[in-house]
Amino acid sequence: MPIELSTADADFAGRFADFVDAGRETATDVSAVVAGIVADVRARGDAAVVDLTRRFDRMEVTAQTLRFTGAEIAAAKDRIEPDLHAALELAADRIRAFHAGQLPADHDAVDAQGIRAGWRWSAIDDVGIYVPGGLASYPSTVLMNAIPAKVAGVRRLVMTTPTPGGTVNPLVLYAAHLAGVDEIYRVGGAQAIAALTFGTGTIAPVDKITGPGNAYVAEAKRQLYGRVGIDMVAGPSEILVVADSAANPDWLAADLLSQAEHDRVAQAILMTDDTDLARRTAQAVDATLDALGADVARESWARFGAIITVRSLDEAPPLIDALAPEHLALSIADPQAMFARIRHAGSVFMGYRTPEAIGDYIGGPNHTLPTGRRARFSSGLSVADFMKRTTFLDCSAEGLAAVGPAAARLAEAEGLPAHALSVTRRLG
Amino acid sequence: MPIELSTADADFAGRFADFVDAGRETATDVSAVVAGIVADVRARGDAAVVDLTRRFDRMEVTAQTLRFTGAEIAAAKDRIEPDLHAALELAADRIRAFHAGQLPADHDAVDAQGIRAGWRWSAIDDVGIYVPGGLASYPSTVLMNAIPAKVAGVRRLVMTTPTPGGTVNPLVLYAAHLAGVDEIYRVGGAQAIAALTFGTGTIAPVDKITGPGNAYVAEAKRQLYGRVGIDMVAGPSEILVVADSAANPDWLAADLLSQAEHDRVAQAILMTDDTDLARRTAQAVDATLDALGADVARESWARFGAIITVRSLDEAPPLIDALAPEHLALSIADPQAMFARIRHAGSVFMGYRTPEAIGDYIGGPNHTLPTGRRARFSSGLSVADFMKRTTFLDCSAEGLAAVGPAAARLAEAEGLPAHALSVTRRLG
């Protein structure tokens, strides 16, 4: 049974604080195993990748067959039902259009002192995206990582995905093709992250790696962060659905379960000012679970689900901010007014007719979002994550004369005489 | 003696590759010590902070005296020579003006399908900045971290700095005052990072921590990354000075040493097409070292310094990109043309009259920059580092009808039936 909290209860504050602090991330310590895999791939390159792939993915592979051929990628299209072609293409087009609006602007200006300053954005050269295999091998993951990278202008976009027992999801290959991925390798796990970082004979190294993965992939990214760029530390997914009495319990139940079905440690929370709606939604969740026979969603809802009753939706904003949810669905009459009152959420789904699933696939905004209250300080994936900014400064003689003495004075005060000399020698 | 490389040498490619790959970051393993400090502060709060501060900073302190009082901060101003007031104020004003131009724009648009989508930026609520104590206690560090945070709109900006033996740099306190820091604590090391992350009785927790620090501070930030946001993994500083025959050897020598004097493992590199200039600059470096008696700079230049001779400056761009330097000084006749040909650098200093030290203090752009070739994939500190972006999606009934069926089809193909239901129930 999901936890039930009500702001009308005397002990609400303490119970809500405990609920906010309760972690769902299991601390599997895989660091030693991952460190061994990373060292092996760094030392032996392709040979290590081939050995580890045979062992973990139970398949024969050689350095020559690690990379998917153009024929294999082209053949994937034929294995997909035609209506899925159109759906993927519509999704790719809409995601591309949204992210194209995120390209950042350069800046170049001369100030009153005659000093020119600004910045220039440029794409990261080589990027790797990791796509999980098996049951969580999703074409939407490919689109949401690869399209922003290509919009940014990444010149070489490499994808790795494990193919356990040789099985690959043709939708993943076709999505990669649609998104403009340049190279695809049948490698997964920590060995894929290490191969992308250090390079092997077959796989040239990249500068940054994005994409979700299991505990081994996440730990490898954490260990190699700094040597390569990474996207984020991602935890289990969550949704907070805020509903008023006009919301439809069957719609809300599907919204809650669409999060819960991702993962046994996913979290779905309903917040409402209508106790009758809360009751009817809980019933609809149970009925939907029975109809779907969804074990993962059932466990997530029972263990981590929650129903929070508020006396008035005026109480909602600080509670929403405390939860800082990855996904915030506002199934209320005036979602815009509520949005204006909250500060922390990864992505917001406005009104009765915007299910979060639209954002997962086709809305346009990225579905890679900060989890576990990290929306307090971080953002979803964007085009800027595939770029970097170089600032610049250009002093005229007059500009240097105007600001140089103050800089030299500060350098002396900081005990850095060569800094001061580099200015005063030019002023002399 | 600094290493000497020339593109005219037959073995240049291999030697340059080794030079690029050579690490300067020492792998001090402080992880166990830091984990112990973090656990202690998390469990015992102020009591742990007080104990650790007594031990590491050799000073008496209580929970009540951890925070600098307004009177202490005001008194700092009187301990500073008046001309330094003006220099710090000019620096603060220029840094503020530059960063104000970095405030990102929101986006809100309805597309042809009737789907509204966009994003909204907002400041991070609570931010902590770490400022080292002792010899590397710099007011410029305060300005470069605190001003972008306040430009972003951070509502509570907390600074921690160790005061070994009770000593504090009054310039650091005055810079914090100028920059609008809200609270200052005399705490340093891993205990400061843990206190900012978990909070203590005296110090309320923050959402993100920025600023440089020693190996303990860096390891604490790495361990707590995810629980709080952090700025970056920073390594030892470096500069690449590219010079043509019209450059002044004495100016170049000061530029090289202004980097070398930061740290025994800092790196200063000269690249030039003029062997005579190279020789005269090396002599000027030695003369300047003798005049300054600078041990740190002398060791850095001898161990990690380099002079790279190119046959023509046309050879420079790929070498610059391979080094991806934190600081790139272009002491050449046409720096703009060279800038257009390179892709990776943290910050560029254009022309003969722009010493890097201007950027350290007063130019405007941030001096917190990616080191150790990380300019390939990351950027200097900016206003956006103190903000986060919330995306949103708002479907009209028509919009949902237009894109919903494709989303439901993709959800089914991914084996996520509740996702599909959350769409189809609304289409019914």
TrEMBL record, chains A, B:
NAD(+) binds at Y130, Q191, N214. InterPro entries: Ald_DH/histidinol_DH (IPR016161), Histidinol_DH_CS (IPR001692), Histidinol_DH_monofunct (IPR022695), Hstdl_DH (IPR012131). GO terms for biological process: L-histidine biosynthetic process. GO terms for molecular function: histidinol dehydrogenase activity; NAD binding; zinc ion binding. Keywords: Amino-acid biosynthesis, Histidine biosynthesis, Metal-binding, NAD, Oxidoreductase, Zinc. Gene3D superfamilies: 1.20.5.1300, Nitrogenase molybdenum iron protein domain (3.40.50.1980). GO terms for cellular component: cytosol. It catalyses: L-histidinol + 2 NAD(+) + H2O = L-histidine + 2 NADH + 3 H(+). Transmembrane segments: none annotated. Its cofactor is Zn(2+). Pathway: Amino-acid biosynthesis; L-histidine biosynthesis; L-histidine from 5-phospho-alpha-D-ribose 1-diphosphate: step 9/9. Belongs to the histidinol dehydrogenase family. PANTHER family: HISTIDINE BIOSYNTHESIS TRIFUNCTIONAL PROTEIN, HISTIDINOL DEHYDROGENASE HDH. This is Histidinol dehydrogenase. The lineage of its organism: Bacteria, Pseudomonadati, Pseudomonadota, Alphaproteobacteria, Sphingomonadales.
